[in-house]
Amino acid sequence: MTVIAPKLTLERRLLGECELIVSLDEVGRGALAGPVAVGAAAMDASGARRRVPEGLRDSKLVTERRRPEVAARAAAWVQASAVGWASAEEIDEVGIMRALGLAASRAVQAIADQGVALDQALVLLDGNHDYVSKVHPAPLRVRPVIKADRDCASVSAASVIAKVARDGYMAQLHEEHPVYQWNRNKGYASPEHRDAIRSTGLSPFHRSSWAIADVPTLF
Question: Can you tell me which residues the record assigns to a coiled coil (predicted)?
């Protein structure tokens, strides 16, 4: 199967209308355990003239072995990057969509804390639903784009940065709870994960409102 590399076509067009793009993509939305993470990547017009890093793709299209090096190149390529998080407890308390908004808002704020001015920025969000604006305390211009993680290089950068960060966190949690094999399944509903839930029960890092042993495999 031929994998089409993401481009900067949309970003360059949008940067004719605004000074900065902050691209967002989520990781971990469908997992049974662990946080949801949203990557953020800021790009201005000068950055959009730079060559897309070698191997950059939507994180799902990059092998696990190659993701860390691709993520490092992506972080060096953009003006600023960050990852925002919402915990399993928050997901259970407020639901997945608001938790996504919290994580996205935290990622955007982390970008701002690095000195990036957001007042002239456009938020480019993968998907078809704006889950950021209702949560972020300041007004944001948000542009949802379906398949932006596949087609838009800046969103691909946010995607792979978030994926590597979340996978690393799940590998750390595996050391505390090895029975669930989170170093392999990253908290998703793999067969070994479901078997461990049946035999051991839930950990504090499970989304207890979701973690049913017989849910379908999600990846």
Answer: none
The Cβ of residue 136 has, within 10 Å, a number of other Cβ atoms equal to 18
Q: How far does Cα 122 stand from its chain's mean position?
A: 18
Q: Note the pLDDT tens digit of each residue in 5-22.
A: 899 999 999 999 999 999
Contacts of 113 (CB under 8 A, 6+ apart): none
Give residues with Cβ within 8 angstroms of 182, minimum separation 6.
33, 34, 170, 171, 173, 174, 193
Whole-angstrom Cα distance, residue 148 to residue 128?
A: 10
Per the structure, the complete domain to which residue 124 belongs is given by: 9-164
175 assigned to a ligand binding site: no
Calpha distance 174→182 (Å, rounded): 5
149 known member of a binding site: no
- Tell me if 92 is assigned to a ligand binding site: no
Q: Is there a domain that residue 178 lies in?
A: no
d(CA 198, CA 108): 38
What type of residue sits at position 49?
Answer: R
- State pLDDT tens for residues 140-189: 999 999 999 999 999 999 999 999 999 999 999 999 999 999 999 999 99
